[in-house]
Amino acid sequence: MRVLLIEDDYILGSAIRSHVAQQGHGVDWVKRLDEAEDALATMDYGLLLLDLNLPDGRGLDFLKAMRKRRDTRPVIITTAQDQVAVRIEGLNAGADDYLVKPFDLDELTARLSAVARRFGAVADPAIEIGTVSVDLGRRTVMVAAKEIDLTSREWAVLDCLVRNKGTLVSKPQLEDSLYAFGAEIESNAVEVFVSRLRKKLGKELIVTSRGLGYKVPTA
Amino acid sequence: MSVRGSIAQRLAVSLGLSAVVLWLCAVGIAGYVIREEMNDAFNQTLRQSALRLLPLAAHEFEDMIDGDGFDDHDARFISGLTEQGANLDYFITDPAGRILIFASDAPINKTEITVKPGFSTFNEAPAFAIRDRETGIGIVVVEHAGLRTTLLRESLLAMLMPLAALIPVLIFFVYLAVRAAMKPIWKLGRVISQRHGHNLEPLGIGPQPRELAPVVDEVENLLDRLRAAIEAERSFAAESAHELRTPIAGALAQVQVLRNALNGKPDQVFAKQAEEALRNLAALSESLLQSSRLQAGFAVSSKAEMLGQIFDLVLAEGEFSAAAGRISITGKPQSLSANIVPDAFAIVLRNLLRNALLYAQGNDAVVMYCGVDWMSVSNDCAPLDPDLLDKLATRFVRGDDTKRGSGLGLSIASGIVEDCGGRLSFSSPIANQSRGFEAKVTFA
User: A104 to chain B: which residues are within 8 Å by CB?
Assistant: First the structure.
């Protein structure tokens, strides 16, 4: 999943970016709302992490403007403002979740997964596909009741495919969910991770449609 | 502040007394004027009587000397000079000063009198004497002693008597007038007395009398300044929270990234310790910020707030949603309402839940009960020492030093609840049980 992080604090922003990327998501980090507008115009993000107090405006106004133009991309507010009124205003403005600083990065991960799940095709975090059992909430995958270790990139590819279960996911879509702007991507990176996943989870899990992309079958 | 009587009473009494004193002065002046006028009038009467009677007396006396003797006509004349109840006495004297005739209610022992012509006193009574130059016959007209004083006293009494009856009526009407005049002052006093640390709303009492308008303006200005000062203090506390949370969040996030990066390596223990220290710092700074906001008096709401939504928001927060399986609510939180700012109630709820989760044994449940104006949070634990129970709302007192707590949560919760006119009470063991701890918030 491609995530847009809007955070003006360098120390916090860099840590969040590093952590979310570590979880296998592509992260673009901007520090201003106008940069966020530009990013939204050029990339289909799966989720936004939005700070409220930014140098060029209020995050809440940015969110309201998004919802006004019927942009339904999930947004998690991350802010140091813990006032109930602000929180209610944020949720009423269309935020999908609200995290008050300081927060655990593990909690951020959990919220991020929960919100993404709510907006994805998969409502249930635990999915059975043949002998493979994937728990998107706990980020675990088991084959024949045996837990399999995945790297963050492998998990990111699997996560993207499972969330779009039964739907073709193109190679550029997978690349977008894996890498941030400006990251150097090997031309065969997606093929490599798909190959590794097939080796660990079984060849039947991921179906290739030549020239179109990949998909996880519904059953 | 001690109270020194009533302005209305003092005004009524002082105005009443002033009216009495003024009336008395007026009566005194009137008495003086009356006495002067009376003296003039009575003196004129004495003089006119003497002047008119003397020729008649001389004529009658000549008739007597000429041989007619003292006949009935003379007797009627003399007795007619002074009738019963008359205020004047007359003495007719011969040229030697011997009394020839007298007309008086009182007998006179003297056979001759010497009274200087003109006004004088005779037996301490005003008198006027005059003598006929041709015959040497004289007449002395004497007024009854004390007549003038008696008349003056009666006049003054006639003026004073109504006063005795009118004084109470006067004071009553003055009191009513003062009460009516004091109404705006009393209203202003009542409205000002309703203002206090938790109520700095504008007075809003509309147009005022000219005398009160400057006072009302100044009080309104003072309230404005107080509101601005308190709001500035609250804003500062809220902004301080914002400014402090962000760097702590950054440091904590960086340490967590480091901890993850060191996963499986021996040095990870240092990252974990640093993370733990930062968590403690975050918790302590949060408690101190809550304390500063409490000091700024942010907790009280001027209107009753419905608090049901606060339960949902607080329970959705990370530390409580992670323990969602342990927390249960009994009752109707949606019906709970109190004059407390939602943020303040959220702090109370967080601190009570945090305390219960921290001290509940193992993974035991934390139970919340809610009524219309009360709520409680309870957890299972060994009964607390009664001495400790009494001190739990004191700053930096912890139930168990081995637990990770700042010792501020319950004291902040207690302070907030008390600020809102409520009470936070603790019981351990829980009523009708042998174990457990219960914190109960009761809003008055």
Answer: 252, 256, 318
Chains A, B: CB pairs < 8 Å: 81
Strands B437-442 and B374-379: antiparallel
Q: What is the pLDDT of residues B414-431, one digit of tens each?
A: 989 988 888 988 888 888
The answer as to CATH 2.60.40.650 being correct for domain A126-215 is no
DSSP letter, residue B66: I
Closest partner residue to A102 among B252, B260, B309, by Cβ? B252
Q: What is the pTM of this model?
A: 0.62
By the CB < 8 Å criterion, does B238 face chain A? yes
Nearest-Å Rg of the Cα atoms of chain A is 18
Mutate to test the interface with A, among B235, B240, B254, B345 (most CBs of A within 10 A): B254
Q: Is the reported ipTM for this assembly greater than 0.85?
A: no
Equal CATH topology for A2-119 and A126-215: no
CB contact under 8 A, A15 and B256: yes
In CATH terms, the fold of domain A2-119 is Rossmann fold (3.40.50)
Cα-flanking dihedrals φ and ψ of residue B145, to 5°? -65, 140
- The sheet with strand B138-143 has its strands ordered as B99-103, B88-93, B138-143, B125-131, B118-122
Alpha-carbon distance B283 to B76, whole Å?
Answer: 128
Which residue of A15, A22, A100 is in closest CB contact with B254?
A: A15
Chain A, nearest residue to B317 by Cα: A99
Distance from CA of A50 to the nearest CA of B (A): 14
Residue B251, chain A, CB below 8 Å: the answer is yes
Six-digit token pair at B84? 């019963």
Q: Which tokens hold the place of A117?
A: 């799940």
Q: Is A202 helix (H, G, I), strand (E, B) or coil?
A: coil
Q: How far apart are CA A55 and CA A59, in angstroms?
A: 10
Q: What is the DSSP string of B296-364?
A: TT--EEEEEEE-HHHHHHHHTSHHHHTTGGGEEEEE-GGG-EEEE-HHHHHHHHHHHHHHHHHHSSTT-
Flag whether residue B250 sits within 8 Å of chain A, measured between CB atoms.
yes
pLDDT in tens, A84-131: 888 888 888 889 999 988 898 988 988 888 887 777 655 566 778 888
- For chain A, the structural domain boundaries read 2-119, 126-215
Q: Does A100 touch chain B (CB under 8 A)?
A: yes
Instruction: Name the average pLDDT for chain B.
Output: 82
Whether B195 and B223 have beta carbons less than 8 Å apart is answered as yes
Measured between beta carbons, which residues in chain A are less than 8 angstroms from residue B309? 84, 88
Identify the DSSP state of B324: G
- Give the dihedral of Cα atoms B441, B442, B443, B444; nearest 10 deg: -150
> What secondary structure does DSSP assign to B172-210, as a single string?
HHHHHHHHHHHHHHHHHHHHHHT-BTTB----------T
Q: Count CB neighbours of B385 within 10 A.
A: 11
Confidence check: pLDDT of B107 > 80: no
Whether A55 and A32 have beta carbons less than 8 Å apart is answered as yes
